[in-house]
Amino acid sequence: MENNTITIHDIAKALAINSSTVSRALNNSDRVSLKTKKKILDKANELGYQRNLLASNLRRNKTNTIGVIVPRISRYFFSSAISGIEKTAFDKGYNVIICQSLEQLEREENLINTLAANRVDGIIISVSMETLNYDHFDGLKKNGTPIVIFDRHCDLPDRNNVLLDDFVGAFEATNHLIEQGCKNIVHFSGPKNLNVYRNRLKGYKAALEKHEIPFRENLVLNSRLMQEDGTKLAEKVLRLPESIDGIFSANDVAAIGAMQYLKKKGIQIPKDIAIVGFSNGPTSAVMDPPLSTIDQSGGEMGELSANLLFEHLNVESVKREPKTIIVKPSLLVRESSKKRG
Amino acid sequence: MENNTITIHDIAKALAINSSTVSRALNNSDRVSLKTKKKILDKANELGYQRNLLASNLRRNKTNTIGVIVPRISRYFFSSAISGIEKTAFDKGYNVIICQSLEQLEREENLINTLAANRVDGIIISVSMETLNYDHFDGLKKNGTPIVIFDRHCDLPDRNNVLLDDFVGAFEATNHLIEQGCKNIVHFSGPKNLNVYRNRLKGYKAALEKHEIPFRENLVLNSRLMQEDGTKLAEKVLRLPESIDGIFSANDVAAIGAMQYLKKKGIQIPKDIAIVGFSNGPTSAVMDPPLSTIDQSGGEMGELSANLLFEHLNVESVKREPKTIIVKPSLLVRESSKKRG
DNA sequence: ACTAAAAATACAATCGATTGCATCAAACCA
DNA sequence: TGGTTTGATGCAATCGATTGTATTTTTAGT
After folding, report:
1. Where are the membrane-spanning stretches (chains A, B) (predicted)?
2. For the segment A186-217, what is each residue's pLDDT rounded down to a tens digit?
3. Tell me, what's the pLDDT at B262?
4. CA-CA distance, B2 to B21, in Å (whole number)?
5. Can you tell me the distance from the alpha carbon of A208 to that of A222, in angstroms, rounded to the nearest whole number?
6. Could you tell me if A149 and A133 are in contact, meaning their C-beta atoms sit under 8 angstroms apart?
7. What is the DSSP-derived secondary structure letter of residue B90?
8. What is the DSSP code string of B186-218?
9. What residues in chain A have per-residue pLDDT under 70?
10. DSSP 8-state secondary structure symbol assigned to residue A337
11. How many whole angstroms from its chain centre is CA A97?
């Protein structure tokens, strides 16, 4: 009773026909007459046949499956990216295998090997923080498996990259604060060795410049952008000689830490100080007041990544044109920054 | 150049030996001498060989892979359950395929079919809200693939179930509030047709009873437990004739809505009203004050589910003993409920 | 040195589905 | 009616790895 999986041969035997005909019928080939097709389909249902994709994929040398690796599936940005990928993949008849590297290079390497061993048709990945080079992609590259790297800048020559325009996001955020009437805007910046934070700083500066507000070095406060950093920075803000009326934080978490401190000190948000964060983390909408922020368009980035991958799936590897796509983030205006209207 | 995947036959040919020896060497069988083993391994590395798991799994009739289906990977409870599963699986040399049903029965059915077609060795699932019966599991059952259902009660006779003890969680929460000195505790309850909310209500009652506090029907406020429900309920709380000094909410989101309203009305938390939520959602720790809550022990439930699955994987299906495991949740005491010490 | 036992390797079938080619039957036309 | 075209089905190789059995080589024992 144990080993009773039904194969096409069982169906063939039951109907006294050849298994190749069964295979063709199940794949709806027009080389099988309608009559026998129906007979086969009925019998397949009756026996509870389920195609063995291992065998099928092995033979076809194609799995119709793509692998997705992200640092953490629980992060909002990543889970929405995954949803975007799944949507696109589903439309094209592909399955998606989701994996998380937990920001560990070793796990990332293992996952890539496993996906490769399972012969996925392509991989979409946001690399871990520990990933400094891309040597572990070489195997895939060699056998022509296309790869799309999203969320994190990759400087290899022949890579497909889908990135967020941090500059524009920061520009929009700062510009919005200015349009709300802010004159003295502090920027919470992150580790300067990371591209994203440098670009967000640039966007902040550009917006000031557009409105002919002089840039003041002392209004840029650096930290690792944890929640407690936000609290400490808010304390600093209140001690600044300029009377600060706006904060653009390079992430949500620090903005929230600051918001809580400021509220405790009786500062009214947004009336006294308007705040905009960055990332649209799960908490930002729940805060009181809800935090304005920059949405990283995870869903859109996921869809674009998947589309880019599919473009390459149908092209011989030698003929593939690597491409970099820059996604514009969108400003989510909520209560924490509305001084007007 | 395109189709250049290396197989064991390529290695065999390069070394003028038989591919079966190569296979055995790569599997570290003791039927191959150390000398040839080394030769083979070296050549495999040199050629960049990567095992084709499709072929291997097909032949062995075993994939060393388990499938996990959850409604949403982004929910904290599920992502921690997945982490628990992955940890356990990794130790046993299994891979994990993660899927999300998005609470849709149709997607769940598709996922189960795909996993079955890919011949996963077992499945761990938290069923979608739309799932009212388990007919779509029949195929798996027929070919002996073990299934573990977690998080949601399942009344089928031969099912493995890993559940949270909602009663105990609610009891602990309420008991904690009483021990903090609360006398008049409101309970925010959810849809009464759901088991979980009925059990949480029971736990609340039991804790009152233990401390000989009379149960008052009017202190149980029903809603769908959305954030805005929390706000409305808090309003009600303030209008109650009893002077309420504690709230046990059957989830975090409603607790947070209530907290924000109460703070706005000048109520001090926890001094005037202590609050405990349920679920340990991502937001609870970030609130001000941080919200005490019941942690659903996702990680532990994941580990237990995986262990239960593995127990069954190594046993013939006829000999399997279905088992139900009840997990005790743990109380996370944070600021929102500390009236003492 | 010769045989028995042990170790190492080779052979060939197998897992389940797919697919190019061959075969057979039915239909068509002159 | 006989030959040809079209349509439907069968045959057999194949994908890449595994594994029971057979064969060869090595080692050991007397």
Report:
1. none
2. 999 999 998 999 999 999 999 999 999 999 99
3. 97
4. 27
5. 18
6. no
7. H
8. EEEE--TTSHHHHHHHHHHHHHHHHTTPPP-GG
9. 1-3, 341
10. G
11. 15
Q: Tokens for A119?
A: 């012969």
Q: Phi first, then psi: what are they for B184, rounded to 5°?
A: -115, 95
Closest nucleotide (C1' vs CA) to A117 is: D16
Sign of CA dihedral A135, A137, A142, A148: negative
- Ordered by where they begin, the domains of chain B are 8-51 (1.10.260.40), 64-163+298-327 (3.40.50.2300), 166-296+332-337 (3.40.50.2300)
Q: Which of residues 194-253 of A touch B (CB under 8 A)?
A: 227, 253
Q: What is the Cα–Cα distance from A28 to B137, expressed in whole angstroms?
A: 26
Whether residue B27 lies within 8 A of chain A, CB to CB, comes out as no
Chain D positions under 7 Å from a protein CB? 7-12, 14-20
For residue A59, say whether its CB is under 7 Å from any atom of strand D.
yes
Instruction: Measuring from the CA of residue B117 to each C1' atom, give the nucleotide at the shortest distance.
Output: C16
Contacts (Cβ under 8 Å, ≥6 apart) of A297: A164, A327, A328, A329, A330
| pLDDT confidence tier of residue B2, bands split at 50, 70 and 90 | very low
Residue B57 CB in 7 A reach of strand C: no
Residues B7-27 have pLDDT tens digits of: 999 999 999 999 999 999 999
In this complex, which of B58, B144, B288 lies closest to A54 when CB atoms are compared? Answer: B58
First to last CA, chain A: 72
- What phi and psi, each to the nearest 5 degrees, are found at residue A60? -80, -15
Using the Cβ of A51 and the Cβ atoms of chain B, whether some distance falls under 8 Å is answered with yes
A264 in B contact zone (CB under 8 Å)? yes
Q: What is the CA B124 to C1' D18 distance in angstroms? A: 29
How many C-beta atoms surround the C-beta of residue B193 within 10 A? 7
Per the CB < 8 A criterion, the answer to whether B70 and B100 are in contact is yes
With an 8 Å Cβ cutoff, are A74 and B79 in contact? yes
Mean pLDDT along residues B323-336: 97
Structure token digits, residue B119: 């011949």
**A319 C-beta less than 7 Å away from strand D:** no
Local structure of residue B127 (DSSP, 8 states): -
B64 beta carbon to strand D: under 7 Å: no
Rounded Cα distance between A104 and A108, Å, is 6
- The pLDDT of residue A3: 54
Total residue count of chain A as it appears in this document: 341
- CA A269/CA A272 separation, integer angstroms: 6
Structure tokens at A6: 């039904």
pTM of the model: 0.93
Find all residues with CB under 8 Å of A43, minimum gap 6, and list them: A11, A14, A15, A49
- Please report where in the chains the tokens 């031969």 appear, as a residue: B158
In terms of C-beta density within 10 A (0-12 exposed, 13-18 middle, 19 or more buried), how is residue A156 classed?
Answer: middle
CB half-sphere exposure, A294, CA atoms < 13 A = 27
Q: Classify residue A234 as exposed, middle or buried by CB count within 10 Å of its CB (0-12, 13-18, 19+).
A: buried
Query: Are A250 and A189 contacting, i.e. CB atoms less than 8 angstroms apart?
Result: yes
In the numeric block, the tokens 């359950």 are attached to B81
Nucleotide nearest B56 (Cα, C1'):
D17
Count of beta carbons in the 10 Å neighbourhood of residue B203: 26
CB contact under 8 A, A54 and B52: no
Residues 6+ apart with CB under 8 A from B28: B37
Cα dihedral value A150, A156, A158, A163, nearest 10: 20
State the Cα–Cα distance between residues B295 and B250, nearest whole angstrom.
12
